[in-house]
Amino acid sequence: MNRRVSNARRCFSPMEHSPSIYIGPAGWSYPDWNGIVYPAERPRRFSELEFIARYFNVVEINSTFYKNPSAATINGWLMTVAKYPHFRFCVKLWNKFTHGECYSSDDVGDFKKNLQLIADSRQLLCVLIQFPWSFKKSVSSIKKLALLLEHFGDLPCAVEFRHSSWSDDAVAQFLTERQVSFVNIDQPLLPGSLAPSAVVTAPVAYVRLHGRNQAKWFRENAGRDARYDYLYRTDELQQWIDNIQSMASQSKSIVVIFNNHFRGQAVVNSFQFKFALQPQQMNAPSSLLHVYGAQLPFMRPDMTGHTLDLF
Q1: pTM of the model
Q2: Is 226 in a helix, a strand, or coil?
Q3: SS3 at position 293
Q4: Among 14, 87, 105, 244, which is most exposed with the fewest C-beta within 10 angstroms?
């Protein structure tokens, strides 16, 4: 199961077979995106989520990892993207379930009720169950995972492990039997870290790219922004194009999420990945091109506020 990516090529190659592909960033609310992704001077009623939905067909909701949102908040998100019928959400499961020791049946019911609002709108692509690096394979951790899948498994779920102990065929079989997606990740390759892979265990194939900032990844005094401060080179992205090529024939949909969010780098790499799969000129925020124009020579400043749906 643990397959390292192939040697990088220096040019992109389009996919021969294309299932539905969803590409976008993890989250949309970052202060350091102001003046880079988002305009420095915002018009009235400016919505960061709507702005992201102009350019991408998926976003991972990161705020749900920290708290259970209200129904009003979720309905607000759904209304914001209503004019983009192909737009989808991946929802990160509340960390009370994955990183904590105790939760109640009310916690499960309340969170699931909110997930159902998105599912009923047909805009829920996946529920992301993300475990920390410290969550290693053991009898107790497998029981914890199985219980969470009992709670949420009637919705499309994807499980992200970060420790290499989960890289074996038995884990893949466990997820396949439950039609749960294994999340293939790109992270700094330190001892015990799960390596890049191309594993498909459900109709939705899932990829998350966190960056490769090895020096800051486990440093105690490094903040969130420092850990995810990384801009992928095009040859590094090509490694994942190769992986997706092999995953395409086994899946109905592929989700590619960039979590290297600092200073909008996730947005830059998302645009590059889109172009790699369907080379054509695209619109991008003019503020982004002002900072990253050298990395996005195929983009043109968005003067209309609208973009084409590419996938």
Answers
A1: 0.91
A2: helix
A3: helix
A4: 105
